[in-house]
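Appendix B, Record 12. Input sequence as logged:
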Amino acid sequence: MLDKTITNALLALRAQIIRENLDGLEHVNALLIQRGIDPAAQHVRRKIPVDSCKQREVKMIVLEALRGGAKRPAEIGAHFIACKPEVAPDRAMLRVYRAIYKMRDGGAVVKDGGAWRLAQ
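Logged structural output:
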């Protein structure tokens, strides 16, 4: 096994231990120090959460929001967040915008000023 591969495996294990608050961090840090790597200098990125809804669900929620009349994107986003509170708000708005523009391309919704409404 290559040194680089072993080092990367140790760094990945260290990141997993930190993210999931598991035991054994001091042992992994000791192995990294033996390999000449300063563990404190290694940045551990937060794990990006997986969205818990499918594209079709987003589309259905957006359509449900627009059935009540034309709405601005923030209002549609608020409805989406109310329906799916487990999705982070910043990611929710990205999902809403993506669904709106795909539905616009398909002719299901149209932009009316600053608001979106169902196509006639």
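DSSP finds five helices and two strands in the chain.
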